Amino acid sequence: MLRVISYKEIASCGDMFVGQFRLRHREFVERQSYAVRSINGLEFDAYDTPASQYIVYSEDGRTVLGCSRLTPIEFGCMLADHFPHMVNDKTVFSTPKVWEGTRFCIDSRLPPEQRRLICRHIAAAYIEFGLAGDIDQIIGLMPTLILRMVFERSGITLEKLGAPHAIGAHARVQAATIPIRAWQLDRVREVTGLGAVLPTPELPPSRNVA
User: Is 210 inside any structural domain?
Assistant: First the structure.
């Protein structure tokens, strides 16, 4: 089961909503020793806002096996705030219809083939969600190896935003953008063999502000 959830679904999808924070704690804090906030086994940061949408993968509707966060950059952008030196053309930070993908996380205890399948589902969901919500591009920062394994091997064409840099334990981390186009989805489905991965066209929330 793959869902896109936000604070609006806490009542109906509470286990999945909280579970992705728990998975993030296990994978980022416990396993990789990230110096990020956590409380009671849940990892969170300043970019977990009401504007954020969470792609969550679960097989039983309760236990989260994979997740990623998507946020419109006008409501917070980790790449702009903390890693602007990783981006050559900073006009991307003021371009309309740009979202940021962060906290991509798969349960490392799962068998390799299952992790690969979940990665492909979440990568495909990026494109489906983006097309449904009229998003132009999704930007983010990842180790170059993960960019290749998660997105490029799923058939997604990335555009690099800058040169790789060493960050923490990772020797090569790079900012990139995913152009959200119909041909990207066609290519993902051709490469992965997946059909539609989201149960309905799950649209981003309205971004009208008073």
Answer: no
pLDDT, tens digit (0-9, with 9 covering 90-100), for 33-52:
777 888 899 999 999 999 99
Tracing tokens 């960050």 back to the chain, one arrives at: 167
Question: What tens digit of pLDDT does each residue of 160-184 get?
Answer: 999 999 987 789 999 999 999 999 9
Residue 31: CB atoms within 10 A of its CB come to: 11
Q: What is the pTM of this model?
A: 0.91
Residue 38 lies in a domain: yes
- CATH code, domain with 181: 3.40.630.30
Does some domain include residue 69?
Answer: yes
Q: Which domain holds residue 179?
A: 2-192
